[in-house]
Write a structure and sequence with these properties.
The complex is a heterodimer of chains A (284) and B (281). In chain A, 80% of the residues lie in helices and 1% in strands. Chain A contains 12 helices and 2 strands, in the order ααββαααααααααα. A two-stranded antiparallel ribbon of chain A has the order 1-2. In chain A, β1 and β2 form a beta hairpin. The longest helix of chain A has 45 residues. The termini of chain A are far apart. In chain B, α3 packs parallel to α6, α3 packs antiparallel against α8 and α8 packs antiparallel against α11. Chain B is built from 11 helices and no strands. Chain B has one domain: MetI-like (MetI-like fold, Orthogonal Bundle), CATH 1.10.3720. Chain B is an all-alpha fold. Chain B is 76% helix and 0% strand. The radius of gyration of chain B is 23 Å and the shape is globular. The chains are: A mainly alpha (284), B mainly alpha (281).
């Protein structure tokens, strides 16, 4: 009876694709579950306050404080955003408003390729080009500044492409209205387009912030990884991500749990940022 | 002194042009630098020789190429059915309710979770609890979770771009919903779906952090899915950080950049042909 089997296949397929759609939620849930389950013992043994605000991280004597890594992550992230946001937004305006067709094609392709270049290649170029340059200024080169420069380039595509999308999403009537009032093209961009695209651009910056905090390998390669609170941009530092990656392979017991707890802190930070970006984008 | 609107515009546009040029320049510098430093080591010999491993930076990248192929193939084999199914559900079946919003939030969240957190998850679940140890299987399972959101979003967009008239025509011929999806909508969206696959291949080739903590570091030729191994990107990391063989690392970087350029070329070409196809009919 071909007719019945046809309906049956239809029903089964609908249920099948529904189940696969649930996979995304399931994975988020499992990630949360496993990272929290493994990290919780460290929070219990060490104490939340001592773990978050302790400045000494010495697994040998069971001292686990991640403040230096939190500070390290925040420094490189803020530094990278300060450089990347103006550059990225300017580049987005270029793509959405200013560029002639051919130039737009070239720049857009460059941005796409920047996304594709593997993290370790950025790290390698940072190691052999930027680190020696910084060594000329002072210190040994492996530093917060090196991390900032590498991250600036790595998060640039995120800022450019999402900002461009939100500039393009501004209704044509806004632009026409401004131009009809005799505003110049730049006045239209500055006083009408940018404010109208504000929440989308916000989302771009927040997402880029998440990218920056989460970046691991390139940071390990250029930042020096010492567990100190950096006092100058030329000082080495360690990020939360670097802390996990550098030590997880040989950790066990409380030390391993403390690394998962570092993961919880990272996870909570990123979830917070992503939720903010999600809200900002829905506003857009 | 107040600048005239015209002058302000000229200054602002100059800065904006500079930003665009700067972006292209950065890319050209990175690619140019890696190619110029790595090309002298990069030859056929390098591609087919096994790396010596350990603390030696000698040898080529043959086992890393094989490791990369294993990881990419397995990751795609796991991610494609899941991602395509989810994309079909989200574009064809989902109604706007709390569950759909939850799934969408899940996909968005997953896209933002950093690679190293996926690594911790894979380390806890696949390496430790499921006893796959540090292996290609553990790495690919972890990586499949990581590329899933990219796949879903790209494939969903491609399926949504298929005009509704296609669906109406299918249903008007008394096809079931699934027959319409499977025989009409999916073939029309095929270039976009292939784009999703290729984008995921690109992510898988470049990803390091989550593999670093799930697939070990063996430089030997992998013999099964349960072997440890390294991808090209991981191999580059070990060369740069552990053996300080920077010239070999650069040559490995050349290989990675060639792969990325090829992938970018294919996706651009597919996007072009998809646009033509959707506009033509």
């Amino acid at each position: 009876m071909p007719k019945i089997s046809r309906q049956l296949i239809d029903t089964l397929s609908r249920r099948g694709v529904f189940l696969t759609a649930l996979a995304a939620i399931l994975i988020v849930f499992l990630i949360g579950l496993f990272v929290i389950q493994q990290g919780l013992p460290a929070f219990r043994a060490i104490g939340v306050f001592k773990f978050l605000f302790g400045t000494v991280w010495r697994p040998g004597i069971d001292e686990f404080g991640i403040l230096p890594m939190i500070v390290g992550s925040i420094y490189v992230t803020i530094g990278a955003l300060l450089l990347s946001a103006p550059l990225g937004i300017a580049c987005a305006i270029f793509l959405a408003e200013v560029a002639p067709n051919r130039a737009r094609g070239v720049v857009r392709n460059a941005v796409e390729l920047l996304v594709g270049i593997p993290s370790v290649v950025y790290g390698l170029v940072g190691m052999v080009v930027i680190v020696p340059l910084i060594r000329e200024i002072g210190g040994n080169g492996y530093s917060v500044l090196a991390g900032v420069i590498v991250l600036t380039i790595m998060i640039l595509p995120t800022i450019v492409s999402i900002s461009e999308d939100s500039l393009r999403a501004v209704p044509v009537s806004y632009r026409e209205g401004a131009l009809a009032l005799g505003a110049s093209h730049w006045q239209t961009i500055w006083h009408v387009m940018l404010p109208a695209a504000r929440s989308g651009i916000m989302a771009a910056v927040i997402l880029a912030m998440g990218r920056a905090i989460g970046e691991t390998m390139a940071m390990i390669m250029v930042i020096g990884n010492s567990i100190l609170i950096p006092t100058s941009p030329l000082d080495p530092a360690r990020t939360l991500t670097g802390n996990i990656a550098v030590e997880i392979m040989y950790a066990s017991g409380l030390h391993e749990s403390a690394l998962f707890a570092t993961g919880i802190v990272l996870f909570v930070l990123i979830m917070g940022l992503n939720s903010l970006a999600f809200v900002a984008r829905r506003h857009a | 002194m107040k600048l005239s609107a015209k002058l302000t515009q000229r200054i602002a546009f100059s800065i904006i042009w500079l930003a665009g040029i700067f972006t292209v320049l950065i890319l050209a510098l990175i690619i140019g630098y890696v190619l110029s430093k790595g090309i002298s080591q990069f030859n056929w010999e390098f591609l087919v020789t096994a790396p010596q491993g350990g603390l030696s930076g000698e040898g080529g990248i043959s086992t890393a190429i094989v490791g990369t192929i294993y990881i990419v193939a397995l990751t795609i084999a796991i991610a494609t059915p899941l991602g395509l199914g989810a994309a079909i559900y989200m574009s064809e079946y989902a109604t706007d309710n709390w569950l759909t919003r939850l799934i969408r939030y899940g996909v968005e969240t997953l896209a933002g979770v950093p690679s190293i957190i996926f690594g911790l998850f894979g380390f806890a679940l696949f390496v430790t609890i499921m006893h796959f140890n540090f292996s290609i299987l553990s790495g690919a399972l972890t990586l499949a979770c990581l590329v899933l959101p990219t796949f879903i979003r790209t494939a969903e967009e491609a399926i949504k771009a298929v005009p509704n008239s296609y669906r109406e025509a299918g249903l008007a011929l008394a096809a079931t919903k699934w027959q319409t999806v499977y025989r009409v909508v999916l073939p029309a969206a095929l270039p976009g779906i292939i784009t999703a696959v290729i984008l995921c291949v690109g992510r898988a080739v470049g990803e390091t952090a989550c593999l670093y903590v799930t697939m070990g570091s063996s430089a030997a030729m992998p013999t099964s899915l349960f072997s440890s191994g390294r991808t090209l990107a991981l191999h580059l990391y070990y060369l740069a950080m552990e053996t300080r063989a920077l010239d070999k690392a650069m040559a490995t970087g050349v290989m990675l950049i060639i792969i990325i350029l090829v992938i970018n070329g294919i996706t651009n070409w597919l996007a072009q042909s998809f646009r033509v196809r959707m506009a033509g009919k």
